[in-house]
Amino acid sequence: MTVISRNPADPADVLVELPAPGAFAAADAVERARAAQTGWAAGGAAARSAALSAVAAGIEAASAELAALVVREVGKPLAEARAEVARTAAIWRYYAQAPYEATGAVHDTAAGPGLLLTRRRPHGVAALVTPWNFPFAIPGWKAAPALAAGNAVVLKPAPEATACALRLAEIVEKALPEDVFTVVPGAATEGGALVSAADVVSFTGSSAVGRTVVRSAAARGIPVQAEMGGLNAALVLPDADIAQAAAHIAASVAGYAGQKCTATSRVVAVGAALDPLREALAEALRAVPVGDPAEAATVCGPLITEAAREDTAAAWQGLSVLAGGTVPDAPGWYAAPTLVEKAGPGHRLLREEVFGPVAALLPARDLDHAVRITNAARYGLVTSVHTADLGAALHGLDRLDTGMIRINAPTTGVDFHLPFGGAKASSHGPREQGRAALDFYTSSRTYTLAPAGA
What we know:
Mean pLDDT: 95
Low-confidence stretches: none
Distance between the termini: 64 Å
Number of helices: 14
Oligomer: single chain
Radius of gyration: 23 Å
Shape: globular
Structural class: alpha/beta
Helix content: 25-40%
Largest sheet: 7 strands, mixed
Strand content: 15-25%
């Protein structure tokens, strides 16, 4: 197999074309990482902290270059690309402090002399399988806590983000000992080999692949987490600021062409909110700047592949289109931000994640009905609730089957110092980011210290 990565705004522009290394090379990378991990973990907190800080500094020093690479390889609009690079540096700095934190606690025994200790230790080698849509941030929020806890890391990026991963490796490898961080390009063969050899696995990607990863890791008895997408809803109550809600939802539908697991794909208008929201949201989506991701004003760039564009266009066929519903006849894989209505309960827009700038408008009689509509999806990553009534918001919060809930804010947006993850088919295993990540990349041990002769 050949790994090929193209510029989605100009498909003739090929960034990477190289032979996939294969399963044996992936397994060998794990073994080399395992040999290097012992020294990395034993080197002490100061060494690990300094190394992660150096990575952050390296990312900051190359920020303009890295943002341009994100734009070129995955079609992310320039403003978002710059924000991702800045957030990536912040993530590495945040976890650079983690090596100094306590790794356990001391307890008294239930009876008699002695002490009980708990201590968290690294697993060994972490296999990270990451998507293309956040080519620096997602590898960062997986690798940084794994390394901070004393693990070695082998990263298998999506083929479409290979150039970004290889450039990240150049920065990280300058700061770390040899083989502590390795990138293995490739596809399913290489990813499967890593899952079969590593000591802990973190995956972000599609539900189908995620379920396979979870089964493989569970069969080996190793820790695994999988983030597998969303079918996120925005609930708009009649007392909401309709203009603000429309602006937030339009940004969540169309930003980066809807290619985020936190993008809004269902808009649930409660009662009297339906008519004004229909008009305001359609207008907001028509006003979204679509075009060359290298332009500073662009909000909605191209889809990642031609197949992704065709899949997005197919999703709105046969529905009542309120905005968009067109595919520009131009180079690059673009689709207009689209709002549809009259999607029946069995329509794919209400069952499957369509990774593109399209959303369905749905009416609800009241908040209870809106909650039932939201919870009907098999995914449960994030929901936004737009209302001026905090009581109503809290009432809705308690019954939403989603891992993250945002009040009067877009569904998109992540605070990396707090846990990230969803419910139902969106996520499996412990949460990512924040201190939760440090727990995932370590195992807890209990020690009993009794005095000799006791």
